[in-house]
Amino acid sequence: MKYACRTLLIFLWEFYGIMKKFALIVAGGNGTRMGAPISKQYLPIGRRPVLMHTLEKFHNTDPMIDLTLVIPEGDFVFWGKLCEEHAFSVPHHLVSGGRSRFQSVKNGLNSISDSQGIVAIHDGVRPFVSREVILESFLEAEKKGSAITVIPLKDSIRKLTDDGKSVFKERQYYRLVQTPQTFDLSKIKKAFEVQELAQFTDDATVYEHQGWQVHLISGNLENIKITTPEDLEYADFLIGKKSN
Ligand SMILES: Nc1ccn([C@@H]2O[C@H](COP(=O)(O)OP(=O)(O)OP(=O)(O)O)[C@@H](O)[C@H]2O)c(=O)n1
Ligand SMILES: C[C@](O)(CO)[C@H](O)COP(=O)(O)O
């Protein structure tokens, strides 16, 4: 069944995938919550830096995807050395990060000179996005203008109230939001021509600020955002599991 779905997706991708595809891998942060001596996007999982796994995931899904990596400008030399050390040959453009995720995405979008196409915006620290999710996000964004990956909640949830109590919430109405968040390039470029607002925790919120509805698609459970030391241990476990 899984194989049949994948074959169908690849067929649809080859048949309908006529727009130019871009992926913006944002890794301009410094991983405060990880608390490691180097930023988490460069930490090794399965002996190679997190970012190499993420870039490779997109490249191996389709080598025609034009890849841009956003990292702090001060890390360019360090990244170059890592690429040499690991003989990393996936082609990508480097762009300087900004003070916030919003600014990093904006810098990345501004670096793309094309005005037409589809762009997947993805956290550099989510190396476990599946090939199927990447393919579907491009297909759906081409049809609907956007494709935001989400997963259902497994636990019950409560909303904290200002009086120090809490109330039950019906979890079937909620989703956890992941990346990639994939868009029509011209629309997302226009959406990012605004002043940054506190509510812009991802790219979907920037897009819908224009009054446009976002289209949700299913993400994959393994696609965690490596944020804290426990996540790194889990990531190492997942990498080991995949190479066995
Ligand atoms: N100025 C920034 C801040 C974040 N990011 C990227 O956005 C993604 C999600 O952010 P997060 O997990 O919060 O990363 P950090 O900001 O590095 O982590 P922390 O909040 O713990 O400092 C990461 O790939 C991160 O590198 C970015 O490109 N530019
Ligand atoms: C974009 C994101 O990964 C979607 O879940 C998330 O909003 C990033 O949040 P952070 O505060 O930058 O970690």
From TrEMBL:
Highest taxon of the source? Answer: Bacteria
Checking Gene3D superfamilies in the record gives:
Spore Coat Polysaccharide Biosynthesis Protein SpsA, Chain A
Task: Recall the GO molecular function terms of this protein's record.
Answer: 2-C-methyl-D-erythritol 4-phosphate cytidylyltransferase activity
* Keywords noted in UniProt: Isoprene biosynthesis, Nucleotidyltransferase, Transferase
Instruction: Work out whether the entry's keyword set contains Signal.
Output: no
Positions MEP for the nucleophilic attack, annotated site positions: 171, 225
- Organism encoding this protein: Cecembia rubra
Which family is it part of? Belongs to the IspD/TarI cytidylyltransferase family. IspD subfamily.
In this chain's numbering, which residues are marked as the site (Transition state stabilizer)? 33, 40
What's the protein here called? 2-C-methyl-D-erythritol 4-phosphate cytidylyltransferase
Database matches in InterPro entries: IspD (IPR001228), IspD/TarI (IPR034683), IspD/TarI_cytidylyltransf_bact (IPR050088), Nucleotide-diphossugar_trans (IPR029044)
A single GO BP annotation from the record? isopentenyl diphosphate biosynthetic process, methylerythritol 4-phosphate pathway
Enzyme class, UniProt record, top EC level: transferase
Among its keywords, does the record have Transferase? yes
Which reaction is catalysed here?
2-C-methyl-D-erythritol 4-phosphate + CTP + H(+) = 4-CDP-2-C-methyl-D-erythritol + diphosphate
Q: What is its EC number?
A: 2.7.7.60
